[in-house]
Here is the input.
Amino acid sequence: MTVAEPYLTFLTDFGDTAPATCRGVIWSILPNARVNDLTHGTRAFGVREAAFLLWSSLPYQPVGVHLAVVDPGVGTARRGIAIEVARGDRLVGPDNGLLLPAADRLGGIVAAHVLENRALWRASVSHTFHGRDIFAPVAAHLAGGTAIAETGSAIDPRELVTLEFPEPVTRGGALETSVLFVDSFGNARVAGVPDDLASLRGTLTPGDRFRLDVNGTATELPWESTFGAVEPGSPLIYEDADYDGLAIGVNLGSAADRFGLDLDTAVRIEPA
Amino acid sequence: MADGERPIISFLTDFGTDGAVATCKGVMLSICRDAQIIDVAHSIRKYAIRDGAFLLRFALPYIPVGTHVGIVDPGVGTTRRPIGIRTARGDVLIGPDNGLFPSVADALGGAVEARELTNRALWLPETTSTFHGRDIFAPVAAHLAAGDAQFEAVGAPLPLDELVRINEPEAIARPGEIVTAVTYVDSFGNVRLAGGREDLVAAFGDPADGMPLDVAIEGPEGRERTRYAATFGAVGIGESLVYIDSLGNLAMADNQGNLADRLGLRHDRVLRISRA
Here is the structure.
């Protein structure tokens, strides 16, 4: 069969239309590119949520070029970067921490370059749409075979901007954590791993009861392996499929709506 | 598949557009890099198995023979079985055994063979309890599409009469009246009803454009004066019509309006349509 086409993934907070313009730029440079849109519906300016999505999705993608633009600093002094990781992927986007968690999960950074080579950009560059004018064309050129060193000068990966993610704390017999991401079902990922809960009670077995404190309300709920283990409308804590971490859900319902969970909502979990 | 043709994988979920769909596609393309993936829908109501079945029946007959992944799966990780169904047309349907597929298979010539997905060699090496789309359904479908596994390899045979089925409401037509119920509400607010053209003919004879009809809505009560018309633009803007949709279903809509919202119509609401 045919040789596989160059593969790109694409994530933004742009909504509907602007991504199509960027795909047009990509296909103008590389007509046989395959573009898998990860999402364009992340919360506007939500760099940490988008970083979480890249982190959770890129390990399941073919090796390729991953273009991600959640860029509240567009047009300012923030740098554009291209990163090569140990698995062989290249990641392109703003230097605001967006790309780094995923880069770590793909084996770590092998090379990082600042986007400086205007020959790889659109001829005319705006101040407010670098997705179209810089990142998309650079990603297309990389997918088409341009060496990453041609994108600009190499920089020490330690100089890249990093994001601060909340760290869970075990204190007073409880896990104190906060929400990292809410998915479209209303399931909420919180910082922490099942071992954190196990450490509170020695073991962790489906059916174990916990007390969830959020927004001043306490609710008792079980640790279970999946939604259907509890009655419709009942809450549960489970190990999330995306990151082996903790998540709060409601069977056939929305935990976000039920408990008022959103990004950074503080959550306290202790054995009941 | 002819040489040089891309294997078709169609894909329907209730996952929304926050990344889970793209993760599944990444898994498919990692296994079957040439696949042509057709997104049927990912924004259907959460957990609405019947809506998923409706949309698959609506779309798949027009999609080339291929591997069709359908995931509306409120029972993920429970004892509900992951299954594959081979159809008379040559398609394979991959997803949960919760009633999503039997009516879809019927629309593709009928189910020929069903199997439970038990062959872990075709799954991702690590599976979770809450994301079988990524861990089981996407990789099995991609292996079938790539041709590196035959349908017989997905797992143990499952008698067709053991598949979970969902009862859909049926229309009752008698001279002068049809009793029907809402089966699907689309994004325009157009309402699909149980029954089809034959029920309309049985009740009212060959319907003439503009034939006045009276629709009584049960519990909570409602009433709508309307008329039969072939298409939306045959009535005034904001006016309602009873029509036969592009699949032959009995249906009701407002021209350039949202009838479901206006009348508060949802699944299974019973309607009595009579001549006005």
The domain at 7-159 of chain A is CATH 3.40.50.10790 (Rossmann fold). Chain A has a mean pLDDT of 95. DSSP finds six helices and 14 strands in chain A.
